[in-house]
Amino acid sequence: MTESGTASAPKTALVVMGVAGSGKTTVAELLAEQLGWQEAEADDFHPEANVAKMHDGIPLTDEDRAPWLEILREWIDTQPGSVVLTCSALKRSYRDVLRSAKADVKFLHLDGDPELIRERMSGRRGHFMPLSLLDSQLATLEPLQPGEPGVVLDVDQAPEEIVAAAVRELGLGV
């Protein structure tokens, strides 16, 4: 409740999800700028051991991801306002951890042709996630399921078009 006695609107946490190379960072930055929300990269919260495994081409296990997902949930909880978070969120169980945050959590799943994503990844420089792990991520990916708040958008369009569609379809008024 606010001082005037009315309920304040709950903050929103928009998780921009998908496999590596799907454009999460680009879309999240544009969304955060348009909406005026705080933005964070889930990759920045990985423990060094996780980064080392991925750098070496070793897929992360559920056990590797569990503490990282809790850190992300806690980050959402501690932010004073709405946020945009990039996170692969490959499995429903991972998304369930994020949905337990004290926010209205919604998902924007960036999906697309694996060959297009592979092409994008091969053009990246300086990222610890090697192209060799894309197949593992694609095999692990569980699409959004009924009851999960979110939308799936194809990455074969311009980032600005994806942002406009996400704002419209998720009701993220400015």
UniProtKB/TrEMBL annotation:
This is Gluconokinase. GO terms for biological process: D-gluconate metabolic process. It comes from Microlunatus soli. It catalyses: D-gluconate + ATP = 6-phospho-D-gluconate + ADP + H(+). GO terms for molecular function: ATP binding; gluconokinase activity. Belongs to the gluconokinase GntK/GntV family. Pathway: Carbohydrate acid metabolism. One of its GO terms (cellular component) is cytoplasm.
